[in-house]
Design goal:
With 244 residues, this protein is of the alpha+beta class. It has three helices and ten strands. The strands form two sheets. The chain has a six-stranded antiparallel sheet, with helices on one face. It has a four-stranded antiparallel sheet with strand order 1-5-6-7, with no helix packed on it. α1 runs antiparallel to α3. The longest helix is centred in the C-terminal third of the chain and has 55 residues. The radius of gyration is 26 Å and the shape is elongated.
Length: 244
């Protein structure tokens, strides 16, 4: 007992440090859980009812772009993004997504590397599904103007016809769109395009399920870590109360 009393100041100091450490850990876990929840919510956001991930097709200002400004502290600067069929979505892409407004014609969709396949749509009716042999195939849009590989193909995406057609362009790309891009596909090409689209839809679903499982695993891990930290803090408080 005498030894315990002699060392009690050191033990008390050590316990206080441990409590602070685990409190910081619990707070960090809580912040991480909040971030994951926000990301998952945004990933599930769907303004058209399609099973697609929201992604603002706008990344950096380029010469000739009309200037844009922040709406408030929570909304980032609205800029233009170039998109290619070989893009891979990551957490940063998901976080750039903004709810579509009537003032800006944003595109969003799912982008897969396999087969240089790209599908994008917007709430005003524009639809682009493309399978391209060229991974540098780029699409750019802002304020209703759509540019493909540097060429303007649409000046107002809000006034497009609702009917889509199967088309092909000289660069080898095959499109299902309501834009006027090239010549009609043959019946055989249409069937091949549909088959590829089904395969890509299946791949999208597999990837989505895989990502959902990963996020659920991370969520459970974070919850377990938070529970352990809370339990440890509670035990340390009980021990600390002995010294008072």
């Amino acid at each position: 007992m005498a030894l315990l009393k002699h060392r009690s100041p050191c033990l008390l100091f050590a316990l206080i440090l441990l409590i602070n450490k685990y409190a910081e850990l619990a707070e960090a876990v809580s912040v991480e859980q909040g971030s994951n929840t926000e990301l998952n919510t945004q990933a599930r956001f769907n303004d058209t009812g399609l099973n697609e991930t929201l992604l603002k097709v706008d990344a950096e200002e380029q010469p000739g772009d009309e200037p844009t400004e922040k709406v408030d502290d929570t909304q980032p600067r609205l800029v233009v993004r170039r998109v290619t069929p070989d893009m891979v979505l990551d957490d940063d892409d998901l976080r750039t997504g903004n709810k579509i407004t009537d003032n800006y014609s944003y595109l969003y969709g799912v982008y897969l590397t396999k087969g240089h396949y790209l599908r994008i749509e917007n709430h005003k009716g524009l639809r682009l599904i493309v399978k391209s042999p060229n991974k540098e195939q780029s699409i750019r849009a802002k304020l209703g103007v759509v540019t493909i590989n540097g060429k303007t193909v649409c000046t107002d995406s809000r006034s497009l016809p609702t009917k889509q057609t199967y088309q092909k362009t000289p660069d080898g790309a095959m499109w299902y769109t309501n834009l006027s891009l090239g010549s009609p596909m043959s019946p055989k090409e249409i069937e091949e395009f549909k088959a590829d689209e089904e395969l890509n839809a299946e791949e999208e679903l597999r990837q989505k399920k895989k990502e959902d499982r990963r996020r659920e695993k991370e969520r459970r891990k974070s919850e377990k870590a938070a529970a352990n930290a809370d339990r440890m803090i509670s035990e340390l408080h009980k021990i600390l109360s002995i010294f008072f």
